[in-house]
Amino acid sequence: MAATEIARQSGEGARAVPLSGHVGFDSMPDQLVNKSVNHGFCFNILCVGETGLGKSTLMDTLFNTKFEGEPTQHNQPGVQLKSNTYELQESNVRLKLTIVNTVGFGDQINKEDSYKSIVEFIDTQFEAYLQEELKIKRTLHSYHDSRIHACLYFIAPTGHSLKSLDLVTMKKLDSKVNIIPVIAKSDAISKSELAKFKIKITSELVSNGVQIYQFPTDDETVAEINSTMNGHLPFAVVGSTEEVKIGNKMVKARQYPWGTVQVENENHCDFVKLREMLIRVNMEDLREQTHTRHYELYRRCKLEEMGFKDTDPDSKPFSLQETYEAKRNEFMGELQKKEEEMRQMFVQRVKEKEAELKEAEKELHEKFDRLKKLHQDEKKKLEDKKKALDDELNIFKQKKTAAELLQSQAQQAGSSTTLKRDKERKNNPWLCTE
Ligand SMILES: Nc1nc2c(ncn2[C@@H]2O[C@H](COP(=O)(O)OP(=O)(O)OP(=O)(O)O)[C@@H](O)[C@H]2O)c(=O)[nH]1
Ligand SMILES: [Mg+2]
């Protein structure tokens, strides 16, 4: 059926109108493609897995390149996240690829908090996007979206069951990111063990309520392949950047004394399935799910935490502006209340301080009076003592004068006697002297 012959009903009440000639809006999909190609794409992968599980090798194998990446030591005090962004180009399509790796995951003795830094990292990227969205002047078009679109969770090829660290971490992450579990270094497990291991992992994930990413089956063009692939999860992968000649072809493989594991051979491992699902079929769905499901949940919780709601208590719609005004009024009311409380507290403190100062002043006055009285008493005592001493001095002086008088009288008396004796001696030289 020609596109111009049919007009689709675009909404309730819209009338279907047949077109009598070519208008041109059938080029809309092409316009969209051109625009997207010009703008380029961005895809962010988070690799969570224990140190040395082959995370970097798998990324190199997936994107057919050598990303820089140093092996990590097992002595990290905590889990850190390391992010690297690369500009890739295939044909005329540009891809800004960010690979985030966990560093030191599973290396601590106490692994209780291992998931925290990963959750924090994912939330930080959501928060940055939310802040950009909430800006008055938004630049979302040129904004580097760092939200994680896919989380490859590397499971150690133990062949037993999931470790509690894996279960706890995946449970904490499943509402924040699209988790695609992979069995790392799957060349280390035999075929029969691998089948059992996959069943065990799936049943453990289900029984612990861990939601892993399901390839979408609502688009009929990919529904079949996606539903088949959902049945193959978790993918058992092998990574290698080493090229080996098989027949007359160079293929990526891992060589062992007993044989060669070909990375892209579907009989050897699920690497091709992973590449197909992650990059070739569902990259856009992963991006979309990140935005519409995980980011939306983060945004909703965050805005609700800030007090924003879509409905009022009577379930009537509530606009953002009304919520803002209600919040603002509530805030202003609280501010006034706080101000009043502070004012009251200030007055109370001033009164208390005043009373304290008055009390101190009174005490000082009392002390001053006491000291003054003490001083007066002391002064009086000294004056009395001085008076007594003066009296004593006067008496002494009187006595002295009297004594001096007596002495002078005695001297006078003494000298007249001597004169008399001298006279008598003159008259009578036979008188002997004493
Ligand atoms: N048997 C096997 N070995 C692998 C596989 N992938 C990688 N390796 C080897 O495992 C070792 C560690 O690989 P990396 O890719 O550095 O592991 P990683 O997880 O990035 O390590 P860190 O970044 O240090 O945590 C290297 O010697 C790889 O050659 C695999 O699929 N099977
Ligand atoms: Mg690495």
TrEMBL record:
CDD domains the UniProt entry points to: CDC_Septin
Similarity comment: Belongs to the TRAFAC class TrmE-Era-EngA-EngB-Septin-like GTPase superfamily. Septin GTPase family.
Protein name: Septin
InterPro entries: G_SEPTIN_dom (IPR030379), P-loop_NTPase (IPR027417), Septin (IPR016491)
Record Pfam families: Septin
Region spans: Disordered: 407-434
Species assigned in the record: Ictalurus punctatus (Channel catfish)
Coiled-coil regions listed in the entry: 321-399
